[in-house]
Q: What sequence folds into this?
């Protein structure tokens, strides 16, 4: 039974303060083939002991495959090349092998059991006790220690389902610490965290580094990389493009982007000339009660308006109610006891069901494309036509030719990368899946598009394409409501920004007057009252 | 746009012919398995399996399973299950007997009442599943007990029969011979030819439609060979049946329903919506699909088809017994899963379920001819069910 060795007891052979003592990990000439595809081609990765090493690259660049090779998900022999770890050649046959050597990977999709407690999750598969009988006291005590190390102030008995995503992430890290971690791999740990939680997580990583734990950080968020990483390796199309040391010369985000996409990206947001007209869409005094707790008012009298051709951003922290507000407007898809009015060109409209909302030209592009946006095991063309089946059928009979033509048209227009539209969307990368969701809603012929985190978890290149699309839609006179946790995105794309906090709008500002500081200040000030 | 080609070297490398074979193998894998099983039993039984008399019996014995499998497939694709179909079929058979034998109703209104009763039973169960989110496994497990009990009560534990001769024709009758009095039933052969010609024409039209919109269609040679094989097979079977007494009435009903449900699932918006509902209910709802109502409809539909099957089974036995329909639900559900439906919903084909039903039927029939006891028959059928699903899942994960 391995004794949990936390960050308080670092390996004595390692030096403190992140100074390199030679590489802990060298992956040499890694090539991984799948039938017909070379996923990794001669990839080299050198990670110095005690550093934070960032890996970035577009979706599909091979980051996850590389980590699966390292952690033994793809056993030795199924790839070419060598893994040197702590000075020895390693041949891992399973995750268990790599974990025994102190390599722990935390995946983007968290692997926690929702209805078990924090303590039970941390020691899942590694239960404290003897002869198969769990020692609850020991489990509890050690969990308290681990939670203190990751700065999570929760009882070990709390169920995972009662925690937010940010805290769940911390539980995953605590679980990693409960094993003998020497090399911690985090796959997009902040993808679903808000800025505060992300910052706290990054601070935690810096703390680990001070205690001699080496980290590999896979991230799309370049500002985070430049904040914490000691070196960066960029992958593109399954090959190493460049490894940069950031201790000597601070890295330039634009340089990374250039290596990632293989081209210059002069501006991360497309230039646009807003052409804003009259008010088209208005929500007045919108109040929603919590779906489970019927006595809890969740959205508190929110009013919003959007003009023709305008992009209106909604800023706010995770859990501030932005998604719930949008979904409740979109056919009462969230909440109960909903009250308030929705106006389209000054006239009150009925949006009490999704089909009525769609008929009035409202489209809601969900933040959770796998859970709420796509039927993963269906073809691309079937997903695109789903919200507007009458558009490809007559008298209830689908014209498969028309459906194919529509889907192929969107594939071409917004550059969905796929062999053909019969491919299942489950096999597409995140960015391409997002484009399918967008195509579905564009085909429904909307006037008002509510985009909820439209660029979450997708790579820089695809992001730019989606921004361009949004800008184009606005220039065609559509009303866009853009919900985002990434403030640069809101500032870069919106014409006007509402700030939401705890179910209410606490500020509204034209983008010219907005800044990250100002938005944060209005959230913090609202919290004080 | 150039990246399109780079991103998918897999497709580009392969010769189109090999990929077509592979795609078709996956699509027709089950059909090929059925053919292999039939050839195996044909050989083992020294030609008994495909003797016209036996073939006719095979159709008669399996028609009600096939018909229920059509409804079950929709229920399973929508993400539910219906365990009550055997009991419902038995209950409807009992109801028909009471109306026709005890109350001397004419068979037409009696049959209509039975279909309406089936719909109401489906609606009742569907109401709890769709609108109150009670798991269908539980609701229909309850329904299975309730309707088995009601069958016993309705028939007072007795067998009730015989049915009026006109009603018996539903299961024991054959289509009338118009051309050739005795001997080879030319009408049946003719219908077989017309059906295969019709199907061939429909396939041609679909292909032409695809080509017109620029979708990739398989090469003409391959397409022609494949569809000719189907057409010849249909004509051959109708010839075999014609050399006995012709096409059974029930086969016409079954075949008609098969075509209707194949069309509904593949070509209509309602079919598409059921697949979306089963694949991802939340996404379907957020796309404006009334998912609750759709689930409800699949259960009503199942109830009606269970009623049809109950009538056919009662007519076949010419008596309604309290034991009628016991265990049918297992054959029906097994047929769907053997035919490639996914237990989690969203995946499954009507023709797959039909083939699955015939795989079970041919095995039952073949093993009986070979004199294998009911004990080992069940063992073998159970193994085939798990093996078929295993191969399916294994292929998907590969």
A:
């Amino acid at each position: 039974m391995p004794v949990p060795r936390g960050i308080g007891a670092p390996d004595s052979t390692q030096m403190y303060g992140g100074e390199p003592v030679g590489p802990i990990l060298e992956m040499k000439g890694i090539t991984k083939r799948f039938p017909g595809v070379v996923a990794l081609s001669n990839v080299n990765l050198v990670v110095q002991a005690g550093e934070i090493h960032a890996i970035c690259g577009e979706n599909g660049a091979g980051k996850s495959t590389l980590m699966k090779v390292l952690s033994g998900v793809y056993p030795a022999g199924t790839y070419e090349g060598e893994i040197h770890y702590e000075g020895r050649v390693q041949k891992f046959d399973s995750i268990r092998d790599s974990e025994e050597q102190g390599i722990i990977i935390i995946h983007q999709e968290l692997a926690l059991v929702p209805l078990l407690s924090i303590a039970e999750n941390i020691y899942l598969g590694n239960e404290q006790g003897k002869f198969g009988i769990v020692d609850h006291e020991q489990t509890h005590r050690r969990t308290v220690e681990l939670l203190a190390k990751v700065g999570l102030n929760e009882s070990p008995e709390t169920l995972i389902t009662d925690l937010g995503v940010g805290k769940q992430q911390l539980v995953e890290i605590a679980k990693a610490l409960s094993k003998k971690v020497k090399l911690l791999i985090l796959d997009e740990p902040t993808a679903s965290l808000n800025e505060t939680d992300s910052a706290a997580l990054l601070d935690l990583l810096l703390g680990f580094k001070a205690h001699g734990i080496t980290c590999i950080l896979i991230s799309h968020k370049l500002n985070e990389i430049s904040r914490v990483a000691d070196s960066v390796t960029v992958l593109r199309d399954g090959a190493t493009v460049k490894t940069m040391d950031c201790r000597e010369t601070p890295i330039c985000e634009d340089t990374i982007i250039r290596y990632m996409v293989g081209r210059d990206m002069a501006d991360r947001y497309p230039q646009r000339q807003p052409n804003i007209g009259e008010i088209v869409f208005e929500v007045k005094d919108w109040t929603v009660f919590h779906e489970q707790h019927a006595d809890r008012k969740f959205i508190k009298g929110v009013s919003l308006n959007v003009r023709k051709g305008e992009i209106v951003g909604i800023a706010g922290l995770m859990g501030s109610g932005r998604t719930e507000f949008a979904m409740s407007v979109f056919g009462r898809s969230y909440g109960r006891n909903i009250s308030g009015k929705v106006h389209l060109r000054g006239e009150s409209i009925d949006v009490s069901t999704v089909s009525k909302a769609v008929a009035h030209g409202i489209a809601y592009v969900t933040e959770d494309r796998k859970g709420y946006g796509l039927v993963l095991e269906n073809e691309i063309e079937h997903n695109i036509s789903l919200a507007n089946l009458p558009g490809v059928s007559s008298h209830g009979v689908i014209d498969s030719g028309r459906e194919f033509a529509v889907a192929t048209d969107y594939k071409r227009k917004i550059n969905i990368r796929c062999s053909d539209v019969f491919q299942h969307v489950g096999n597409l990368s995140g960015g391409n899946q997002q484009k399918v969701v967008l195509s579905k809603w564009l085909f429904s012929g909307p006037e008002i598009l509510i985009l909820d985190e439209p660029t979450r978890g997708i790579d820089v290149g695809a992001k730019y394409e989606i921004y361009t699309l949004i800008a184009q839609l606005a220039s065609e006179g559509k009303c866009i409501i853009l919900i985002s946790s990434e403030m640069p995105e809101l500032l870069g794309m919106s014409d006007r920004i509402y700030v939401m906090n705890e179910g209410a709008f606490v500020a509204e500002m034209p983008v010219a007057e907005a800044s990250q500081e100002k938005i944060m200040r209005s959230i913090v000030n609202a919290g004080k009252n | 746009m150039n990246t399109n080609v780079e991103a998918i070297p897999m497709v580009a490398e392969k010769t189109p012919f090999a990929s077509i074979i592979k795609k078709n193998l996956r699509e027709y894998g089950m059909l090929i398995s059925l053919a292999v099983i039939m050839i195996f039993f044909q050989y083992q039984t020294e030609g008994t399996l495909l003797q016209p008399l036996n073939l006719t019996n095979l159709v008669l014995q399996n028609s009600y399973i096939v018909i229920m499998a059509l409804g079950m497939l929709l229920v399973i694709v929508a993400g539910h299950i219906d365990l009550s179909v055997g009991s419902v079929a038995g209950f409807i058979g009992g109801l028909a007997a009471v109306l026709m034998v005890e109350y001397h109703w004419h068979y037409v209104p009696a049959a209509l009442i039975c279909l309406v009763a089936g719909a109401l039973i489906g609606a009742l169960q569907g109401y709890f599943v769709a609108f109150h989110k009670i798991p269908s496994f539980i609701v229909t497990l309850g329904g299975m007990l309730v309707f088995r009990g009601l069958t016993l009560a309705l028939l007072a534990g007795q067998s009730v029969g015989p049915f009026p001769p006109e009603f018996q024709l539903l299961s024991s009758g054959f289509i009338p011979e118009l051309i050739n009095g005795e001997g080879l039933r030319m009408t049946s052969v003719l219908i077989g030819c017309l059906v295969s010609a019709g199907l061939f024409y429909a396939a041609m039209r679909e292909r032409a439609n695809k080509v017109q919109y620029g979708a990739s269609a398989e090469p003409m040679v391959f397409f022609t060979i494949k569809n000719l094989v189907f057409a010849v097979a249909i004509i051959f079977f109708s010839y075999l049946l014609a050399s006995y007494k012709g096409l059974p009435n029930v086969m016409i009903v079954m075949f008609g329903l098969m075509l209707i449900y194949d069309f509904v699932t593949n070509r209509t918006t309602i079919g598409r919506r059921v697949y979306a509902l089963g694949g991802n209910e939340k996404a379907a709802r957020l796309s404006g699909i009334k998912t609750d109502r759709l689930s409800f409809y699949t259960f009503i539909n199942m109830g009606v088809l269970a009623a049809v099957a109950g009538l056919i089974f009662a007519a076949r036995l010419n008596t309604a017994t309290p034991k009628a329909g016991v265990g049918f639900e297992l054959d029906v559900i097994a047929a769907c899963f053997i035919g490639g439906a996914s237990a989690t919903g969203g995946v499954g084909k009507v023709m797959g379920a039909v083939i699955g039903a015939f795989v079970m039927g041919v095995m039952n029939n073949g093993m009986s001819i070979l004199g294998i006891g009911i004990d080992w028959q069940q063992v073998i059928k159970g193994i085939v069910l798990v093996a078929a699903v295993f191969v399916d899942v294994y292929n998907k994960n590969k």
